[in-house]
Write a structure and sequence with these properties.
The chain is an all-alpha fold. The protein has 14 helices and no strands. Helix content is 70%, strand content 0%. Helix 5 crosses helix 10 and helix 8 packs antiparallel against helix 13.
Length: 358
């Protein structure tokens, strides 16, 4: 039977033409690199908006985009059943995912305020480490020996990056920050990213729904959480200011800020697109290219000093990412209980990049 859920199952890469693979690889690489670079560049050029407002606009754009893609790619003659009250009750299970993504995105701004894009891009690969740990704990997956070695190498590479960042202390960069504060923000963001990705995959196994519709629901829930948080913050600020009117929502925005909103929204949509059409090898290559491109851009635009320690760390991280993504993962215990065939399992959302990207 041709159900809407079956339409959103990951399709093998062999079923798609070469240009689709190349397009996904190019867009994913540019989005991963561009997000960090644009946020940093906007901060340098005087963009100091409330990060809650930026993320609220980005989530609203993702809601609209996901709904349009749902109706154009996944909806069938029975699409209305997904909006019945009985079906929407299952959406409550996605609230933890929305909350984790909201926290992760706020930490993104804090990390980039204190780190150069190249350092951030390298440290953010720790999300693979936490995704692997949580996939074992929550999903019952069994990682291969090569994958465990890759995770250890990844942790070592991240440690070298932090060592280099701590020794340089922002020297030579156009914007000085607190490397330790940025490192802590990245680590917490990676933990929430790994947990959110594995929790989302768990929900996909126990509560089936079209993937683009799920993306819209998570974005809508994140927008609700951000709206409540933002309103509470504004009321508290007005109370402290003795009843003075709160700042405008778009106060601190510059034209480049809207570019940040757009690229963050694109990142959330790219996560779902990669889940549908990409494999782990392509995502691993994209992460490697993003790391290398971020280093190149940071040197040109932000005068970041790239030392030998960072270069060694970048090589270690690139190798570990490629090893982890290229190695197959054994079927999870949840799949086995449901009687699904053994073999590779679908990658969790965190493996596709930010967000994410969320």
């Amino acid at each position: 039977p041709n159900s809407s859920f079956q339409k959103c199952v990951v399709l093998p890469m062999a079923a798609h033409s070469l240009w689709v693979r190349f397009a996904l690889l190019s867009v994913l690489t540019l989005q991963n690199t561009g997000q960090a670079v644009l946020i940093k560049l906007a901060q340098i050029r005087g963009s100091h908006p409330d990060s809650l407002v930026v993320m609220l606009f980005a989530e609203l754009v993702k809601v609209v985009g996901s709904i349009l893609l749902f109706f154009s790619m996944e909806a069938d003659n029975s699409w209305a059943r997904h909006f019945y009250p009985s079906s929407l009750k299952g959406s409550i299970k996605l609230l933890p995912t929305a909350l984790l993504f909201a926290v992760q995105n706020q930490l993104l701004f804090e990390a980039l305020h204190n780190l150069d894009p190249a350092v951030y891009q390298a440290l953010s690969q720790l999300k693979i480490l936490w995704a692997g740990v949580f996939s074992v704990i929550l999903l019952g997956k069994s990682l291969s020996q090569i994958q465990w070695v890759a995770l250890v190498l990844l942790a070592c590479g991240a440690s070298l990056v932090q060592l280099e960042s701590g020794m340089c202390g922002g020297k030579g960069s156009v914007v000085a920050g607190d490397p330790l504060r940025g490192f802590v923000a990245v680590v917490i963001a990676c933990v929430t990213s790994g947990l959110a990705g594995c929790y989302t995959e768990l929900m996909l196994k126990t509560h089936r729904m079209p993937m683009w519709l799920q993306s819209a629901q998570v974005a809508l829930a994140s927008a609700f959480i951000l709206s409540v948080t933002l309103q509470s913050k504004r009321l508290l600020a007005a109370s402290d200011a003795g009843g003075a009117p709160p700042r405008e929502l778009t106060d601190g925005f510059i034209p480049l800020t809207w570019g940040v909103v757009a690229i963050i929204s694109l990142g959330g949509l790219m996560v779902v697109a990669v889940l549908r059409y990409a494999d782990n090898l392509l995502k691993g290559i994209s992460m490697v290219f993003s790391l290398l491109l971020s280093g190149f851009v940071s040197v040109l635009m932000f005068q970041t000093e790239i030392g030998i320690v960072f270069c060694v760390a970048a090589v270690v991280i690139c190798c570990s990412v490629f090893l982890y993504q290229a190695s197959p993962t054994t079927v999870s215990a949840i799949d086995d209980r449901e009687g699904r065939p053994s073999g590779k399992v679908r990658a969790s959302p965190v493996m596709g990049g930010n967000k994410d990207v969320a």
